[in-house]
Design a protein that fits this description.
Layout: H1 2-21, E1 27-40, E2 46-54, H2 57-66, E3 76-79, E4 87-97, E5 103-108, E6 111-118, E7 123-129, E8 138-142
Parallel strand pairs: 1-8
Antiparallel strand pairs: 1-4, 2-3, 2-6, 4-5, 6-7
């Protein structure tokens, strides 16, 4: 009797593990969240502000070096004129879930470039890491 019970228990455990970890179809999903960006400047009032989300750090280098405005409004926000209100930037998130709903992989855009321009024409940019959207959905940026 005990031997039969152990055999059945082993088969059930093996079945559950096979279901969870074998290459059965998985759920692939895409989505995102709105990141609230608070921008301030101790160097005086800003005339305009732009924010853009990026997936890879290499993409941010040219934008920061030349202080380029956002190429599209897909993952960016622009306030011109800037009146001090927070900006909202859409941050893409994607992932894979197992048949039982366990997250196998989750990725999101990790970097935000914020560019501000003052009344006198000076511009400055800053690179900020985007927090995990499950933990926080806002950042504060100080441009100097």
């Amino acid at each position: 009797m005990r031997r039969a019970f152990l055999t059945i228990a082993a088969l059930v455990i093996a079945g559950v593990l096979a279901w969870e970890f074998s290459p059965f179809p998985v759920t692939i999903w895409d989505g995102g969240f709105n990141l609230t960006v608070h921008v301030t400047s101790p160097a005086g009032p800003l005339h305009s502000v732009s924010c853009q989300a990026f997936g890879r750090r290499e993409q941010t280098e040219e934008v920061l070096e030349y202080l380029l405005p956002p190429e599209s409004l897909g993952y960016s926000a622009v306030a011109d004129p800037f009146v001090g209100e927070p900006l909202k930037v859409y941050v893409p998130v994607s992932g894979r879930d197992s048949p039982s709903g366990r997250t196998l992989r989750r990725t999101q855009f990790r970097y935000l470039v914020v560019i501000g321009q003052w009344q006198d024409g000076r511009r400055a940019g800053k690179l900020v890491e985007i927090p995990d959207g499950r933990v926080s959905r806002e950042v504060s940026v100080v441009l100097r």
